[in-house]
From TrEMBL, chains A, B:
Belongs to the spermidine/spermine synthase family. This is Spermine synthase isoform X2. SUPFAM superfamilies: S-adenosyl-L-methionine-dependent methyltransferases. It comes from the Eukaryota. It comes from Geotrypetes seraphini. Residues 86-326 form the PABS domain.
Length: 329, 329
């Protein structure tokens, strides 16, 4: 074991310990009395040993300080560099560890990185470009973005933007709509989900069309423009695009302008008394939510909105959903 | 800046960097190609600087490796040694960070450490001996441990074991029971919750008795024994004790024996067609759940049970709840 001590003077001390097997420890002592111990090991086999070592250390510290320790906190070990990555921070930037035990699908599509990872408690989780999108446990998300059971969709025309996991489509077709059109840009999301997210999408993605639905594998912007030009309208538009939506033809300068373009086009294809549903953001991101609501005041037609905060199991944070409708027409 | 390099030979390299202001970095290079960089700073003012430094480092690494990097992952910084502790690991031992911004209550009672911490999204959270018990966001917990809305409590006799946060009592009295008796050992939990968990308990803890309820500040074991002896029975017994219950007179050898004692006494005071509700554990702790279910086969009277898995917002893990009833009498 190699030991080195560094004196920061009024900012405390640092000691480092290196052993021959690839393990490494540091002890920092900061005024007015914090002792931070980090133990870093190479390989999983040393985990139990580390635990034992930390127990001994804690005991020895209590003796040395004659039990004058006000707080001891030991954090679970962080595993890095392995095949399975268990850390998928929340939208508000908190470090959270998932119980992921298997990589089910991991592909680069022309649009994004698509991962489907297996969580022991949440089932398979779809992660797009590092963002947790939806887990098989998350029926609450699908219900919230469909108006939380307050709408009667029977006989109605519904347009879904995005929604490649098939969750909304699967729940919607059960409710006997007249026709559901889903516009998803990424065939590889559909391919992954129809195979590995079946608790979410059932068999609805096995075919790109059914009795009362069709799936268009296209960028939704030109599709919306076509519908607007042709005067085709819908009772419901459900925007289930990713937080920063992907387009093959980003003609707008900023993300906000792009989001406004989608909203404006959606309002054009929405019937007079139609409703537009979308996810907002993590409830803690109050600034982003306020900016979004600001955009709603800058659309081509006047709208009103309501919002609801819902707990989505795999998100580990509360999520805001919006209902938007046209007014004063 | 002081630099030191250590060669682990077939297990890689370690380099440490110490600067004069109390910051400390380590770079470990492990075969077959993992580079782990840790940056540790003293004081919050350096957080932005760290971010900038890591951006530069990442850019430089990409240049050096000519973009032959398959994966880059940066974890949110961990803050240690501060007044506010944001890390409260889950029951299944995962590291999760909470959005805690304030310490509302922090006391040592004769029985346990009681903390009430404010979370931006979950409201105030009650933490007993380091275990997240209940947040103001967690009506789902209270509903689940009351049978998920499937029971009619009007005119019924209800016994609550524990439940010091007042959540069950508050929801129960709304349902017009004949009488609710709550037995909570720790007056200081009641005191903290009636002041700081009012979204959970309303005004129900302001007085220890009301029209249809009474709160006994006592160890539940002697109370249950008294009721059993006197032949007093209840339609519902709701066990809301902590995972490892506290007693002033632990006469049993192991936790499991103690849990069985509570169950046996509860069955004695439960009416023939009564129901017993309790929380189980995190859904991932399958061994602990199986052991609990094993205890149910070893009670003084035969019982059956059903279970339900529920998402409790502040837990960041799915939780199992049990309903138990007597059979074959």
């Amino acid at each position: 074991m190699t030991e080195a001590v560094y004196n920061w003077k009024d900012r405390g001390y640092l000691a480092t310990y290196i052993n021959k097997s690839g393990s490494f420890a540091s002890v920092r002592i900061y005024p007015p009395g914090s002792v931070l111990v980090d133990l870093q090991s190479y390989g999983a086999e040393e985990k139990n040993e580390d635990h034992h070592l930390l127990n001994e250390l804690e005991e020895r510290m209590r003796e040395l300080f004659q039990n004058n320790i006000t707080r001891v906190k030991r954090l679970p070990a962080i595993t890095r560099g392995g095949a399975i990555d268990r850390y998928w921070p929340t939208a508000d930037g908190r470090l959270v560890e998932y119980d992921i035990d298997n990589i089910v699908y991991d592909e680069e599509s022309p649009y994004q990185n698509i991962k489907i990872l297996h969580s022991k408690q949440f089932g398979n989780i779809l992660i797009l470009n590092g963002d947790v999108n939806l887990a098989e446990s998350d029926l609450a998300y699908t219900q919230a973005i469909m108006g939380s059971g307050k709408e009667d969709f029977s006989g109605k025309e519904v347009l879904i933007l995005g929604g490649g996991d098939g969750g909304i489509l699967y729940e919607m077709v059960k409710l006997k709509p007249k026709m559901v059109t889903m516009v998803e840009i990424d065939q590889m999301v559909i391919d992954g989900c129809k195979k590995y997210m079946r608790k979410t999408c059932g068999d609805v993605l096995d075919s790109l069309q059914g009795n009362c639905y069709q799936v268009l594998v296209e960028d939704c912007i030109p599709v919306l423009k076509r519908y607007a030009k042709d005067g085709q309208t819908f009772d419901y538009v459900i925007n289930d695009l990713t937080a920063v939506p992907i387009s093959t033809s980003p003609e707008e300068d900023s993300t906000w302008e792009f989001l406004r373009l989608i909203l404006d086009l959606s309002m054009k294809v929405l019937k007079r008394d139609g409703k537009y549903y979308t996810q907002g953001n993590c409830v803690n991101l109050t600034e982003a939510l306020a900016l979004y609501e600001e955009q709603l005041n800058r659309l081509c037609c006047p709208v009103e909105f309501s919002k609801e905060t819902v707990c989505i199991p795999s998100y580990m944070e509360l999520w805001v959903f919006y209902t938007i409708w046209k007014t004063g027409l």
